[in-house]
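Case 288 in the screening queue. Each case pairs one protein sequence with one candidate compound; here the compound is S-adenosylmethionine. For every case the pipeline is the same: read the inputs, emit a complex structure as tokens, and attach any notable structural observations.

Predict complex for case 288.
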Amino acid sequence: MNLTNQNEIQALLARHGFRFSKSMGQNFLIADWVPRQLAEAAEVDERTGVLEIGPGLGCLTARLSERAGKVLAVELDKSLRPVLAETLEGRENVELLFGDVLKQDIPALVAEHLGGLRPVVCANLPYNVTSPVLSALLRAGCFETITVMVQREVAKRLCAKAGAPDYGAFGILVQWLSEPEILFEVPPGCFLPQPKVTSAIIRLRRRTEPPAAVRDEELLFHMIRAAFNQRRKTLPNALAAGLGIHREQAEQALQNAGFDTRIRGESVDLVGFAKICDELSKILSADL
Ligand code: SAM
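Case 288 output:
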């Protein structure tokens, strides 16, 4: 069966009485070149164990299974169980797990189902949960690469550098933990149903070392969120409001790190945040 042929897909869905769910971000691929190139971009070979989120009808799963040692595909929509049983029949290296990926213990899942293989992620992500899913995958810390389709605007945000209008807290978190790269764009006509926006394939390569040494990584992540929660405020004011500290403490940390106290978070790069964080951490522990 050709899983990207619109007529065959319609017949398959009718046979199983399947209805699309918008709330589960179901936009299935109907252009053969996309799952092929996505699987290729994920650098999958027989020593690789792939975690796929949301196999849908299985078109990407099938491509991954041709290349990988094993594919573990986690699908939220249980009504896809009989569909996937038909489309992936005979693919011995595919394991399906029905449940919400956000409720899984990802490192445990990888150890149990992909043990002995080089773990990577490859998926056409459900757009409504892109950020929490990416955050969970990155924080799990076990994937060499995460190659996923996301909305083009999100892809740009994840790669944005300090000073760019779309530079923000989530992009910094992603860039702290990985090196993201936009590979290619995918137009709306490649999906059923068609989304309103263009998509992009992005590959996040895990960093072996963080971009800068930092004493307290949790404080760094809190600080970055605080800096962008109120992005119009100066950084000391945003940090004071977001972290519940005195503005003077934040100003002191900025000065010690060599920054003007009137700057905003949007002009500070990753290394700058790490420096400010170390200074703030010293000030807060001295005041205890
Ligand atoms: N991989 C298929 C393709 O490319 O045609 C489907 C991709 S579709 C954009 C997203 C898929 O993720 C859907 O099958 C949807 O049911 C599933 N999904 C949505 N939320 C999920 C979650 N929290 N955990 C696991 N799967 C989820």
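Case 288 observations:
- Strands lie at 28-29, 48-53, 70-75, 94-98, 118-124, 145-151, 178-186, 191-192, 199-206.
- The pocket of S-adenosylmethionine is lined by residues 24-29, 53-57, 59-60, 74-77, 100-102, 124, 126, 129 (CB under 6 Å).
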